[in-house]
Amino acid sequence: MAHLCLFSLLVLSLVLETQALTPTHHLTTTDVARLQTLLSQPFTDLKSAYYSVVGLSKLGISVADAAETCRFIKSNLDPSSVESLFFAAEASQALPGCEIPVSNDTRDLLLATVSEDSTASQIHQSVSALSSLGLPLASQEVVSALKARISKEDNVLTIILALQTASRLSQQAELGEILEEIEDLAARLDDLGGVYLQFEEGLEATALFVSAAYALSDHVDMEPPLKEDQVIQLVNSIFSKKSWDSLSEAFSVASAAESLSNNRFHVPVIVSAQGPAAISHSQPFLRLQVTNVLCKPLSSASVLVESATATSSKSAILSQAPFTLRDGVFELNFMASQPASGYYQFSVAIAGDSRFVANHVELKVKVSTRVSINNMDLSVVDKDQSIGPKTTRVEYPAKAKASFMADSHQIFAMTFQLVDETTGVELTPHQTFVRLHNQKTGQEVVFVAEPDSKNLYKFELDTTERKTEFDSISGTYALYLMVGDATLENPILWNVADVVLKFLDEEAPSTIQAKTLYTPKPEIQHLFREPEKKPPTVVSNAFTALVLSPFLLLLILWFKLGANISNFTLSPSTVLFHIGHAAMLGLMYVYWTHLNMFQTLKYLAIIGSFTFLAGNRMLAQKAVKSTSSGLYT
Amino acid sequence: MSNSVFSVISRFVEEYRSSTPNKLKMIDAYLLYILLTGVFQFLYCVLVGTFPFNSFLSGFISCVGSFILAVCLRIQINPQNKRDFLTVSPERAFADFLFAHTVLHLVVVNFVG
């Protein structure tokens, strides 16, 4: 039972850790302006006119000179091309009061293109043109043509075009099968690191998929099978690129942005703090911009702080506090809750529309304050405590009038308090340094002042202890106090006083040696390996003679024993054998002096086989002779 | 004590002189030669030093190897051992001796440096 509890707790904690995603990439107002500029370029042909006009209309912007554009479209229209008709029809639809003249031939051409033999792009263009020009079309035929096309060509772009086409058809048509393609296509998206979700075909395909999927879903009024996290990942992928290579890419991003802002099911919410998320007494309002992906503020939203906790103490400061909307920006007076300085974790919820996606955001807010130094007391205390300390109080930013003298019998001490200027609460900033600067030699030594348990800062300087830091150089040192922290608005550098230090055993002030890191180093002489000591040549020669001497002894002994040379028959095999054998011995000598193993083996094989044959012959003859003559005893 | 040792030695020498065939005596002389060569090499190493150690090793191993091969030849040739070596004729033994020596010298010359 306990194990089950523990296990469920573990699972729960894992689930809670994987919070809903929030968009990491979104278009800012400058990005939207850039998109608009790109789409407002003067157009060169009908295709670019289509992209510009329809793209701008998706951003909610109308073209500058509608009449001129309409004239341009009409003059560039080629009634015999389906593509041209498509561009013209769609563009004219976006322009007010622009009508394209339609002839029967045009209508027939467009209707004829709707068949299984045309490509998906042709079917899409003809259906869209028919729909924009207000001509009737047979939805069921289109559906069957699309289905046939999808089964023939299974690639991503074909299916996206099919989805777009289906969104222009009558609602009575059987669009169920095509609707299912959305889910299949969504499964083909590549998940990159859990942050991005895109097709390997690229940004344009992903953006067109989003606009097509939502267009069709809105048309049939069925929620698209995309989870919240997937929608956010798609937002990240599509809006991560802030400058677009081509007009078609910009157009696809604009249509994706429009569909994500205006569809009936999912509206991603972008929350960003205006400026740094930092507040202080001079700036008590936390301002948030809550917009859709096109950077248009969501006025219908209500923004609520679910909880605000201090990161250091984890105590909740706020709970369920609403933001007020002012000039399109949501603001909250956080300083009214009188938070102590530091960092706070805000959990913000945006409500108001069930379509909102990623409407829970975590924000880190910094509260900064001003610090003031109280009770700065400087004193020189005698080590043996015989004379009482004289304490001088110095007020910031003044400097102590008299300089303090400390030699080896005395200790220089400094105490002070750091408090929040407005609330009087004691502070412990990250940086509290005491810097002593010798004006004559330019030397400086920095110490850290530590607070005690009552948050009172203390600094003590004992000249005998700190001799090494100062290099025992006596003289007048200017004393500075440095206070700094990320949450302080007024970091302090204060020349508090001058201190005259006297060290014992003063050495002559050594000139600080310039670092010899980058000067050439002494050259290293390589020491070659000493050859081993060899014995003198005389000794070697003597021993060589000694080692060779037993050979003479052998010859003498053999002669004395009566070597049987007389039995040496001069048959060819014997002669050849002896020559071969001598050659082998000669080869050994040559091997020692000149050859390597491989060459030797080669020669040895030749000579050896020759010798073997000769020797075999010779020994056989010998054997025959000895058995016949019975020489063996 | 020394008397008996001396008499044993003299008797052994007498036996050797008379009953050993000439062929074997020749091989024995060869063995003595090899032995002395090895001893002199070792003496050099002990007295002067092992400077070209590989050379010393190869020379010494050559002596030892030759000694062993010659002993094998002697055993195989000895007519008193004929029953043990029915398949090996003296000529065959000599041929083996030569072949083994070829291999030994190949290795020795490779190592002597």
General description of the model:
The complex is a heterodimer of chains A (633) and B (113). Chain A is an alpha+beta fold. Helix content of chain A is 40%, strand content 22%. Chain A is built from 17 helices and 23 strands. Chain A has helices spanning 2-17, 29-39, 46-58, 66-76, 82-94, 104-113, 120-132, 139-152, 156-166, 176-187, 203-220, 228-238, 247-262, 467-470, 537-561, 572-593, 597-629; strands at residues 190-192, 196-198, 267-268, 270-273, 278-279, 285-291, 302-310, 316-322, 324-326, 329-333, 342-351, 356-357, 360-367, 371-382, 390-394, 404-406, 410-420, 431-438, 444-448, 450-451, 456-462, 475-484, 492-501. In chain A, β18 (431-438) and β19 (444-448) form a beta hairpin. In chain A, α6 (104-113) runs antiparallel to α7. Chain A is flat. Residues 12-18 of chain A have low confidence and may be disordered. Chain B has one domain. In chain B, α2 runs antiparallel to α3 and α3 (53-77) runs antiparallel to α4. The model of chain B has no long low-confidence stretch (mean pLDDT 88). At the A-B interface, α15, α16 and α17 of A face α2 and α4 of B.
Itemize the secondary structure elements and their pairings.
The complex is a heterodimer of chains A (633) and B (113).
Chain A: H1 2-17, H2 29-39, H3 46-58, H4 66-76, H5 82-94, H6 104-113, H7 120-132, H8 139-152, H9 156-166, H10 176-187, E1 190-192, E2 196-198, H11 203-220, H12 228-238, H13 247-262, E3 267-268, E4 270-273, E5 278-279, E6 285-291, E7 302-310, E8 316-322, E9 324-326, E10 329-333, E11 342-351, E12 356-357, E13 360-367, E14 371-382, E15 390-394, E16 404-406, E17 410-420, E18 431-438, E19 444-448, E20 450-451, E21 456-462, H14 467-470, E22 475-484, E23 492-501, H15 537-561, H16 572-593, H17 597-629
Parallel strand pairs in A: 3-12, 5-13, 16-23
Antiparallel strand pairs in A: 1-2, 4-6, 6-10, 7-8, 7-11, 9-10, 11-13, 14-15, 14-17, 17-21, 18-19, 18-22, 20-21, 22-23
Helix pairs in contact in A: 3-5, 3-13, 4-5, 5-7, 6-7, 7-9, 8-9, 9-10, 9-11, 11-13, 16-17
Chain B: H1 2-19, H2 22-48, H3 53-77, H4 90-112
Main location (chain A): endoplasmic reticulum
Domain Ribophorin II N-terminal (chain A): 27-261
Membrane topology (chain A): Multi-pass membrane protein
